[in-house]
Amino acid sequence: MDTFCVLPWYSREISGKTPVACCLLPDNHNIELIKIDLLNGVRNIACSKCWDIEDIGKTSRRQQENIFLDYKLDRDLSCIKADCETNNHDINMYQIMTSNLCNQACVSCNSGFSSKWAEIDRKMGKLPIKSFTINVDSLDINFHTAKRITLLGGEPLFDPTSFTILKKLVDADNTSCFVSLVTNGSITLSRQQIDLLSKFSDLNICISIDGIESRFEYMRWPAKWPALLINLEAYRKIAKTISVSYTISALNAIYYDETVEWFNNNNLNYNHNVVAGPAWMALSNMPGKLKQHVKNHNNFVSSFCNNINEISIEIINKQIALQDQAKKIDIRDYMTEFWQLLNE
Fold first, then answer.
1. How many CA atoms lie within 13 A of 154 on its CB side?
2. In angstroms, how far is CA 87 from the centroid of its own chain?
3. Is residue 295 within 8 Å of 249, Cβ to Cβ?
């Protein structure tokens, strides 16, 4: 069985915490044991999120990363694996969460990733997670040899630190580095920002879209769908590729088909980000009536409906009400079908 993944040897993911090779790994993972298993065809349990995706016939992050480095190094994956076995490798892929500065409070997010959510937490009487901003000058990054830099947030286009990092790549004469910006799509770029981004020949802008029209506006409040459409066209003019990160939870699962249809109609490649927590939003914990509705559609989401765990409708309604009250919105104005199905 092929279990090899390039990340433990070539990747560093940087945030306000200790750097790791992959953000999908649990906090208590043993990276050296993972390396041994990945080289020897063993499915380490710490990598279960990728195995689960692969088992239902979808492309996992492991597979995507292997394809990327094969392409970027112009080196066969078997040779890359041999390099790892002989310790002939260097970190060249960086994923950087610059801060938790963000202008949206998405339903599935929290104040650890969004300063907007910190405002909501305070309105709900909760203590927000402590904010942070990385120190660019202290980053252990070789800007001359980097093959990929992915900028996350918060909202990277809302954070000046992101553009400071990109300027360092330009100063290192490394504009061929693959740059990916994971954005909520709400930011209209300035002329100066467009000029900087246009210097990179391999630029990807990955937009987080969890539904269309009013569903999008609820899931990524206070986003506006018309603004996203305008910015999408502007991003297409400067990026080599545009992609989508599609976060799927118990709230938006029933809208899967219409959302994917919109992606396909707009020539947008997308990856699935399946919510596992908090428990009331976990895809596999949907109440029975939602699971049955989704099963009838026989799509990607259907494969997550076999778990016997179910969160009560009362808990989901309570959590929704808490968020809606703090945001001064009503889910029934945005996701009517979901609300009716849940409460009929």
1. 24
2. 30
3. no
Residue 52 has pLDDT above 80, yes or no: yes
Helices 313-327 and 115-123 cross at an angle (nearest 10°) of: 100
Closest CA to 208 of 193, 190, 238, 228: 228
Helix/strand number for the chain, H first, E second: 14, 7
Exposed (0-12), middle (13-18) or buried (19+): which is 52, by Cβ within 10 Å?
Answer: middle
Distances (CA, A) of 201 to 170, 179, 180, 188: 12, 9, 11, 21
At residue 241, φ and ψ (nearest 5 deg) are -135, 150
Helix or strand run (H / E) with residue 261: helix 256-265
Q: Name the band, by pLDDT with cuts 50, 70 and 90, for residue 4.
A: very high
What confidence tens digit (pLDDT) does each residue in 224-268 have? 999 999 999 999 999 999 999 999 999 999 999 999 999 999 999
Given its phi and psi angles, is residue 139 left (phi above 0), alpha (psi -120 to 50 degrees) or beta?
beta
- Distance (Å, rounded) from C-alpha 272 to C-alpha 285? 17
Average pLDDT over every residue of 142-162: 95
Residues 92-119 have a mean pLDDT of 95
Q: How far apart are CA 57 and CA 300, in angstroms?
A: 9
Distances from the Cα of 4 to the Cα of 8, 9, 60, 81, 96, angstroms: 10, 11, 12, 7, 23
Q: CA distances (Å), 166 to each of 43, 116, 192, 197, 234, in order?
A: 36, 25, 12, 8, 19
| Rounded-to-integer distance, Cα 167 and Cα 199, Å | 10
3-state secondary structure of 244: strand
Is beta strand 11-14 parallel, antiparallel or unpaired with respect to 178-183? unpaired
Token pair recorded at residue 286 = 């949907």
Question: Whole-angstrom Cα distance, residue 87 to residue 67?
Answer: 20
CA-based max dimension of the chain: 61
- Return the pLDDT at 306: 76
